[in-house]
Specification:
It is a single chain. The chain is an alpha/beta fold and 805 residues long. It has 32 helices and 24 strands. It has a nine-stranded mixed beta sheet, sandwiched between helices. Strands 21-20-19-22-23-24 form a six-stranded parallel beta sheet, sandwiched between helices. A three-stranded antiparallel beta sheet has the order 14-16-15. Strand 15 and strand 16 form a beta hairpin. It starts with a helix and ends in an 11-residue tail after the last helix. The chain binds N-[(biphenyl-4-yloxy)acetyl]-beta-D-glucopyranosylamine. This is Alpha-1,4 glucan phosphorylase.
């Protein structure tokens, strides 16, 4: 609606053309007569960028003048995908541009696909951060994101002979969406030593001296809201050698090579995104990334606050900082250091400010994902921060001791320092102790953290420090409907014949589009009338892609056992997989290999034909998700109960008119509550039973589920290539305790898949389920989610801009 009052820039296809051509000829210095799709993309992006920038400047100016409380979202990952389509959707005028491009001889779809994904994230956590930025802008919250400007995002995945191969993702060649602010820099210090002294009045001082300095340079990315003039900022830090270190000292003293090496070492900090998802490996460079980014962001936030000349007491009234998992936890001791060492506040006054400022979101209970850093490493890299962490811990443990004098064991359990060899800093405890609120990301998950990893802390702080904010998703340009508040109105159309027909036609068209993609990329012809069964997400044992592929093999064996006559009664299915394995995660890579081998056999078996196809889609990412998600009939969210904190693609699939098969885990439970249990296919053991089942595996003899045993026999016989390649995968289940309960859940899974086959045959009933699902998903809008954070954690208000004159 704001657009109607603020007709800046072009509003017709002719005006768009003028702007795009001007940029192609001048900004890009390309002559029109050899204008290719790359240049047309550049011209289009720059034309829309101009419109964003005006809003962006205005928004930032208004936020500065109004000076109300702001929220800073600290995340090492922002999985943004492509920006142009989003900019067009938010600014409006996509139709003018489409028409204009058509006049110039281009198709909008081809131009959009020229853009490189901004793939600065691994999976759910990074994608959530991107959705949050979008909603914070759409709802007019004064909010900034802070992250790292990786030169290489998540690797590109190639599948060669059925194996994953990683290729670097260099994405910055031409990025019109970032603005280098070479004048906005921060010196970030590493290593060195701590100095303590007393001044003339006897006051203690502490300073951190020596070591090396790396320069953080700001790169700003505009974040436009949907149908609002608010345009927020995402500030990404790039690392550079601090001048002085490079050009003067060493360069002039003839140490040219050493100075180049210094420069490269500095630039290495922001060079690459660590490609682990839910796994912590304790690498020094990762810790350097974390401190570099926390220090630069905190300096920037404090600098902005100091310009207002307010007293330090007011800091938490002006600033909320949200920690996206424990990755930014060093921001806590860093703010304490700034206040005590640099600004001269008393420890307790400073700590009061710090712990009112931060909120911490936990995204996982998997033990291997909980961040711990070795004390010797921290001592070496961040000597002053380690001292501060010890002091925070001392104060905390004294408080615990006073309040729980009888429970001596508790002190060791809740200490920030784990007394192992080497000693370790438990980042989740530090994040919790230094924050005023801790939240989980779905109801079950928020309950689980209170009864497992943070159990003692509920006793210490009481339950009110802990809360739940269920994750959510954003509806983008390719989705069924754009306005989630209108979703519920759909329910009234569930019996409308015309609507039902159109609904099915859209789904079918989306499946045709995906079938075309599969033909082009996998060389396999799939029938768009078949049931499309999709599992796309990071490959991880807890997400159980192995359960899915074993189910596919089971289906294949069943088809093979039937007569040609009986086969005709079966429902045709396409099983579609996609997702990246962390490069060092061998079990996950084995699962990818098995899926591809099964595909080779099944897709070329003339007995099977259209009844079953198995597809692995290479390099699953945000822009591919835009093609895959709307084309699914069923998607799989089948983690071992209690392991998937929330999941967000489950919501995305439902919002796009697909049904889901899932376990009682993460947000699946709340999705069920919203859409009705008759509209979802749930199966498997419950979270409360998992511990006992695992225990039983370890201490009693256990039998493999019989149908699964048959599947394993066929793999052993070499039906899908050399069985040796899969022995670790099978042995984990047969001999090593089946930690993820694949066998325990197999019968229930296979049976539920049969129910799905039957349900899909009844097109009318299926359509009803799908429509009701979409209509009842309003709760899972990221706008709702951000309002909850704003109200219950950040205590901030929207800042609506005055109408332009
Ligand atoms: C840690 C150390 C070194 C390198 C990388 C990491 C790391 C990176 C990403 C650890 C965890 C990371 O992400 C975890 C994640 O994506 N969690 C998911 O968060 C989603 C949003 O809340 C949830 O929906 C998913 O259930 C949860 O798995």
């Amino acid at each position: 609606a704001w657009r109607k009052f603020t007709p800046k820039g072009f509003t017709t296809s002719e005006d768009f053309e003028k702007e795009a051509v001007r940029h192609i000829e001048t900004t890009l210095a390309r002559s029109l007569y050899n204008c290719d799709e790359v240049a047309a993309y550049g011209g289009t992006a720059l034309a829309f960028r101009d419109r964003l920038i005006l809003d962006w400047n205005k928004t930032q100016q208004t936020q500065t003048f109004t000076d109300q409380k702001r929220v800073y979202y600290l995340s090492l990952e922002f999985l943004m995908g492509r920006a142009l389509d989003n900019a067009m959707l938010n600014v409006g005028q996509k139709d003018s541009a489409t028409k204009g491009l058509d006049d110039l001889g281009f198709r909008m779809e081809d131009i959009i696909s020229q853009e490189h994904d901004a793939a600065l994230g691994n999976g759910g956590l990074g994608r959530l951060a991107a959705c949050f930025l979008d909603s914070m802008a759409s709802l007019n919250y004064p909010a900034w994101g802070y992250g790292l400007r990786y030169r290489y995002g998540i690797f590109k995945q190639e599948i060669i002979d059925g194996y994953q191969v990683e290729v670097p993702d260099y994405w910055l060649d031409f990025n019109p969406w970032e603005f280098a602010r070479h004048d906005i820099t921060v010196d970030v210090q590493f290593y060195g030593h701590v100095n303590r002294w007393q001044d003339d009045e006897g006051k203690q001082h502490t300073s951190w001296e020596g070591g090396e300095t790396v320069l953080a340079v700001a790169f700003d990315v505009p974040v436009p809201g949907y149908e609002t003039p608010t345009c927020n900022n995402l500030r990404l830090w790039g690392s550079k050698a601090a001048s002085g270190e490079f050009d003067f000292q060493k360069f002039n003293s003839g140490e040219y090579e050493a100075s180049v090496a210094d420069q490269q070492r500095a630039e290495t900090i922001s060079a690459v995104l660590y490609p682990n998802d839910n796994l912590e490996r304790g690498k020094e460079l990762r810790l350097k990334q974390q401190y570099f980014w926390c220090a630069a962001s905190l300096y920037d936030i404090v600098r902005r606050f100091k310009k207002t000349k307010r007293s330090w007491k007011e800091f938490p009234n002006q600033v909320a900082i949200q920690l996206n998992d424990t990755h930014p936890t060093l921001a806590i001791p860093e703010l304490q250091r700034i206040l005590v060492d640099l600004e001269g506040l008393e420890w307790d006054d400073a700590w009061n400010i710090v712990s009112k400022t931060f909120g911490y979101t936990n995204h996982t209970v998997l033990p291997e994902a909980l961040e711990k850093w070795s004390v010797p490493l921290m001592q070496h890299l961040l000597p002053r921060h380690l001292q501060i962490i010890y002091d925070i811990n001392l104060n905390f443990l004294q408080y615990v001791e006073r309040n729980f004098p009888k429970d001596r064991e508790m002190l060791g359990r809740v200490s920030i320092i784990e007394e192992s060899n080497p000693k370790m800093v438990r980042m989740a405890y530090l994040a919790l102790i230094g924050s005023h609120k801790v939240n989980g990301v779905a109801e079950l998950h928020s309950d689980l953290i209170k009864t497992t990893i943070f159990k003692d802390f509920v006793k210490i702080y009481g339950p009110d420090k802990f809360t739940n904010v269920t994750n959510a998703s954003k509806l983008g340009g390719h989705d069924f409907l754009k306005d989630l508040t209108l979703l519920s109105k759909l329910e009234a159309f569930v019996d409308d014949k015309e609507f039902r027909k159109e609904f099915r036609e859209i789904k079918y068209a989306n499946k045709v589009r995906l079938a075309k993609h599969i033909k082009e990329h996998n060389g396999v012809t799939v029938n768009p009338a078949a049931l499309f069964d999709v599992q796309v997400k990071r490959i991880h044992e807890y997400k159980r892609q192995q359960l899915n592929i074993f189910g596919v093999i089971h289906r294949y064996l069943q088809i093979k056992s039937l007569s040609a006559e009986d086969r005709k009664k079966l429902a045709p299915r396409v099983s579609i997989f996609g997702g990246k394995a962390a490069p060092g995660y061998w079990m996950a890579k084995t699962v990818i290999h098995l899926i591809n081998k099964v595909g080779d056999v099944v897709n070329n078996d003339p007995d099977v034909g259209d009844l079953l196809k198995v597809i692995f889609l290479e390099d699953y990412n945000v822009s591919k998700a835009e093609i895959i998600t709307p084309a699914s009939d069923i998607s799989e969210h089948i983690s071992t109960a209690g392991t998937e904190a929330s999941g967000t693609s489950n919501m995305k699939f439902c919002l796009n008119g697909g049904l889901i098969i899932g376990t009682c885990d993460g947000a699946n439970i709340e999705i069920t509550r919203e859409i009705g249990e008759e509209n979802i296919f749930l199966f498997g053991n419950l979270a409360e039973d998992v511990e006992d089942l695992r225990h039983g595996h370890l201490y009693n003899h256990y039998e493999l589920e019989p149908k699964l045993a048959k599947v394993f026999d066929e793999i052993h016989k070499g039906r899908f290539g050399d069985a040796g390649a899969f022995s670790a995968l099978l042995n984990g289940i047969v001999e090593h305790g089946d930690y993820y309960l694949v066998s325990d859940d197999f019968a229930s899974y296979a049976q539920t898949q049969e129910l799905i086959d039957e349900a899909y045959k009844d097109t009318e009933a299926w359509t009803t389920k799908a429509i009701l699902t979409v209509a009842r998903m309003g709760f899972f809008s990221s706008d709702r989610c951000i309002d909850e954070y704003a109200e219950s954690i950040w205590n901030i208000e929207p800042l609506v801009q005055k109408k332009d004159d």
